[in-house]
Amino acid sequence: MKTLLFALVYLALSGPGKTFHSQEEALVLAFGKAEVQRTPHYWTKVERTALGELAGTKKVGGTHAKFQAKTKQGKVVAGRSVWFDTRMVRSKPQTIMLIIDAEQRVEKLVVCSFDEPLDYKPVARWYEQFEGRQLNDELQLKKGIHGVSGATLTSRATTAAVREVLAAHATAHPVVIKKATARKK
Length: 185
Prior knowledge:
Elements: H1 2-14, E1 18-19, H2 23-31, E2 35-42, H3 45-55, E3 63-70, E4 81-88, E5 93-100, E6 106-114, H4 124-128, H5 152-172
Antiparallel strand pairs: 1-6, 2-3, 3-4, 4-5, 5-6
Helix pairs in contact: 3-5
């Protein structure tokens, strides 16, 4: 009897994945009840190559969509953008939502769905290590991002997704760096 109970509990916990938030629910988490504008970005072959180089990957999707809150007057609120990424982990997809702030840092990462067995999904604390990160050399496994034993493919897919989304955001929103000018006396 104990063996049967253990087997049932194990199957329930390691069974198919789960949807945690629909896109609409995730957008409410990001923007509350504000009106949201979706802006698709269709990348040319040259742009995809540049995105791949920036993200440190060979293959980048041909389109991304960002979401931004709008004011009551219909103007887009600058500063925060939301991007969704869906990619295969092992043989099934994971969808994450990334909130990117005005400094091009990950403000929040939310797992919207994880279709692999939940045994392959890291704990929430693992995903939190992306918060505050920018696209740089530290945003890699075995550098600034710790891997997860038993969820290596999820770690790789999530890190690649974050890098690609930050590259897409940087391409869509280039940061203008102002040079400091010396004051004349």
